[in-house]
Structure formats: C-alpha cells, structure tokens
Amino acid sequence: MNPTSGTPLDERALALRRRVIDTIAAAGRGHVGSTLSLMEILRVLYDDVLRYDPARPDWPDRDRFILSKGHGCLALYIMLADKGFFPAGELPRFCHFDGKLGGHPEAGKVPGVEATTGSLGHGPAIGVGMAIAARLRKSPARVFVVAGDGECNEGSVWETALTAAKHKLDHFTLLVDHNHMQSYGPTEEVLPLAPFADKWRAFGFATEAVDGHDVAALRAVLGRLPFEAGKPNAIICHTVKGRGLPAAEQNASWHHKSKLSEDDLAALYAALGPA
Amino acid sequence: MRKDALEMVYEHACEDPRVVFIGSDLGPGVLAKFQAEMPERFFMEGVSEAAIIGMASGLAAEGHIVYVSTIAVFLTRRVYEQVALDLCLRSLDVRLIGTGGGLVYAPLGPTHMATDDIALMSALPNMTVVAPADAPEMRRLMRGLRSRSGPAYIRVGKGSEPEVTSDDTTPFGAARVVREGAGIVIATTGITLHTALAATELLAAEGIQPKVLHLPVVKPLDTAGLAVHLREAQGLVVVEEHVPAGGLAAAITQWLAEVDDLRQVRVRRVGLPDAFPDRYGSQALLLDHYGVTPARVVASVRALHPEGR
Asked: DSSP character for A88?
C-alpha cells in the first residue's frame, strides 16, 4: 500500500520533470523512476529549507545535503543547476566521458555535492560524521540525508541509526524516499520494511510521515524541525516511483532505463503537457 | 606497540584540535586520559564498523584528522567498501589503527587473524600502508604520518617486541638499513625484521653477512631506496607475515620485474602460505608452523649466496 494522496503536480513540478527527460534524452540513460519519486523532496529542500550559497559551496555554516540514494542523482543535478551551483549547460553531458555529472554523484567533482554516493547505505553515516563535526565547531549547520527505501535493506543504515540516536543529533534529518519499489519489485515483497515508521521510532528517531509529492505538506513538516529536542529526525516520504510519467509509475522495469526510443521520449514529453 | 600508537594519538590530539578518535567497542579504559581531557573529541562507538568508517569520513570531510581503532580484520575485510569509497576515493585524513596484524590473534582463530590486510589496504588508491617492527618505530611512523595527507592503515603488532629500531633518522617512507652487509639483501616489514636479524646472527658464524633492509612503509614502496640497495646484490630474501598475494614480496617483485638493470637479483620469499590459519596457540608458534623463521631465512640466503650454490 502506498498512501500518497495523488496531489496534482504543479507547473514547477512539470518543468523540473521536463528537464529530467531532456537530460535523459541527451545521455541516453538514467534512473528515471528513482529520480522522479525524489523530485518534490529535493525541490522543497532546495527551494525552502536548506541554507546554502551557490557562490560559496564551501561556506562552513551551510546545511549539508547528501543524496544517499545516489542513483537518483539526476534530481539533485537538476536542482543544483537550477540554483546556480554549476551551469545548466553541463546537464546534457550527464554520464558523458568528459562530463562532470556521473551516473552517481561525486563530491569534489560537482559543486554542491557533499558526499560521493552510489553504493547504498553510505550516506547516513557520512552525514552523522558531518553532524558531529558541526556540533564540535558550534556551527548552526544542519545535515539532511535522503535515502531510498530499498537502501534501508542495508545493515549500515541501521548501525548509523543507532549511532545518530546515541549522539542525540537533532540537527540530523534522514528523509526516506519511500516509493515502495526497488529494483526487482515491491519493497514489501523483496525485503519487507513495515512497520517502517515504527522501526525508526524504535531506533530513537522522532519520526513523521508525509506525502512526498505534496509540496505544501513537505514544507510544513520540514518547517517543524527539529521534531523533538535530542532526537534525530526521520521523515518517511511516501512517493510514487516515476511520478508524473504514467509509463514509468510504479513500474520496476523503469528503475533504470537506457536506450530510450524516440517514441518513448515523445510519450514522456506528452505526459508532462506543453512546456 | 598498540599502547604507543594510542599514546601518539593522544599527543597529536593535545597538539591539534582537529584530531578526533573513534574506537569500536574497545576494551575498558582505552585512552582514558584522552576521554577525560578531551571528551568531546573521543568517541567509543559500538560494534558497527560501517557506521564508524562513514562517520570518520564525514568528520574528515569537515576538516578533522580522524584516528579509528579496532581489530585489524574488522577494519580491512569487514568494511572494505567503506574504506575504499568513503575514505580512499576522497583521500581523506583518516588513520586506521588495526590491532592484531598478521598472526597476533592466533589463539582466536582464523576469524581474527589479519593475514591479508596489507594486500587489501595496498590495493586501494591513495592509501598509505605502514607496518612497524617495534614500539619506537610505531611512534616515529605515527609522527611521520602527521605530515602526510590522505588515509593510512597502520598494522599493529603484538607488543613487547624487542626494540631494534632506536636512534633512527630515516625519513618517513624510506627503506632503512638495520644491518649492513653485502651480496644478499633481506627485506622485511613489520615484526619480520626480528626474524631477519635473528637469521643474520646465525649466518655470521658462516661468514655470510646479508644486508637487512627494513621497509616499514609498504605503500608507497620506496623503490628508489630499494634500487640503491639492490644494485650490488645478487639475491633478495623477502620476509613477511602475510599471504603471498599483495604483500611486501609481491610489491617488490612486481616493481622489480620492470627494472632492467636489476636482472641479476634472484628472489626468495619467506612468508605465510595461501591458506587460512588452521592452528591456534600463539603468534610465535604459528610463525614457526608456517616457516616464517630465522632458519628458513638462513636457508634462503644460503641458496642465493654466490658461495652457497
């Protein structure tokens, strides 16, 4: 069961998705489904929540954002380009030999990317280290990590959950893009996570659930951080894999797509309506 | 040796506020002074190596110098990908202090013996790999690492090894001559320096005096130093407490294979077999069982010696 409300996508949501398709068309590949389930989460973070300065990506007091489900990097690249971390002209070179934007994000190569991810289960622990570092230097910087639900199969995620709770990192927030699908099929069939929110609560996280495509709801829940003093925060974002593209929605064969045909692309653009 | 390594961590932390220490459920009282005096930079975490390496990565990415300590096999085999991606790929300043390198944990069995740690760590780009022979060398290497950036793996011996490397002025990373000699070079790393020195005592009676060249830094390998010392040599015996793949002998011979003017150097290896340890007892008993012994070194030197053929 995926309790997303089916909130309609607004014009910015559609515009961002057109950029995703533009980029996938140029590169000839990409994790379409995983990117689109993330889009509103990243949009709200970058539009409304994170404190950053694209002109100073190393500003010490910036909030740190780690996309732990690195295969959703197109959504991140599109937001970083949108905010001016690098020119949008870099996007069509996604996954190209001489491009900066690889199929998984690399810190040190892409301005605004804080951690190299791609192998799952690494981002939360790196984020915990950054949150401890912020506390040590008495910085107001907060840390936000987005993990996938399939990623939560990894034991390292739960090791890190124990660690974050132990250190009472209430400036650390883990958002799970809970699109209920992983590579092979439904998460509840491949390796059940339910009761998912209860697991996070049991691990010591102040936990909320939200429709991850409802921009207003995301703004509201992220505006209440920290949820509880002395506890790390978990936000279960119920999303739809491939949201906005009927062909891709909740379709495991769209987890990663290469070799998109002209007809596929035309259908994707058509689904998003006129630009 | 472990005590010295940890004391050096404490000293470094006193001098540099960027230093933090992370242990993985170590014994009670470890670095108690550090914890008492700098509690905010002392972290004793759980049996959660993946989370610890990630945490170290996050701290180092923010400018900290991070020392992580636990049993060598858990720092190398268990969290290899975290070490590779979270530390080495970004070349972050994290120092892995691996206790029980080689056969130290012989009584505990094959789960705890780090017989392939040098290979695993050396395979990772940007990693520095060091294996001291005794406590003074541990202290010097720990100090030397301060001026190197990037990740490092430190193989820690059992402790109470005889101190044979005192009064050393060799720069960090350089091969050092521990005993002068000619004709044959015995190359060592870690505690096999002691095996080599014992072998030279036995050989002295026969009038054979090999040069003992100690390489406490396996990566980056001091090939320039090796070239100098092997120029006049007929033979090289490499002694290592390590499996054949990826240890000191493998590193040296891989380099040597491409050096045309050292073709005269014949090589013998004295080391562990390609096998999981199948006995318990003690490090000394297992070294003896697998033939990492002065007697075997003597035999190898004799076999290579011009007058021994």
From this structure: G
Interface contact flag, A136 B85, Cβ < 8 Å: no
Q: Provide the CATH number for the domain around residue A52.
A: 3.40.50.970
Across A222-238, average pLDDT: 98
Sign of CA dihedral B129, B134, B138, B144: negative
**Neighbouring residues of A141: CB distance < 8 A, sequence distance ≥ 6:** A51, A60, A61, A62, A63, A64, A130, A134, A171
**pLDDT over 60 (residue B285):** yes
Mutate to test the interface with B, among A132, A143, A144 (most CBs of B within 10 A): A132
CATH 3.50.30.10 fits B2-156, yes or no: no
CA dihedral A100→A102→A107→A109, nearest 10 degrees, is -10
A208 at interface of B, judged by CB pairs closer than 8 A: no
User: For residue A91, what are its two tokens?
Assistant: 């996007």
The model's pTM is 0.96
ipTM surpassing 0.85: yes
Which candidate in B42, B53, B57, B90 is best for mutational testing of the A interface (most A CBs within 10 A)? B57
**No. of H helices and E strands in chain A?**
9, 7
Beta pairing, strands A29-30 & A257-258: antiparallel
Q: Which residues contact A202 (CB under 8 A, 6 or more apart)?
A: none
Is-same-fold flag (B2-156; B176-308)?
yes
Q: What is the CATH number of domain B176-308?
A: 3.40.50.920
For residue A56, how many other CB atoms are within 10 A of its CB? 10
So where are chain B's domains?
Answer: 2-156, 176-308
- CB of A242 within 8 Å of a chain B CB? The answer is no
Domain range for A230: 11-247+259-272
Residue A1: pLDDT over 50 = no
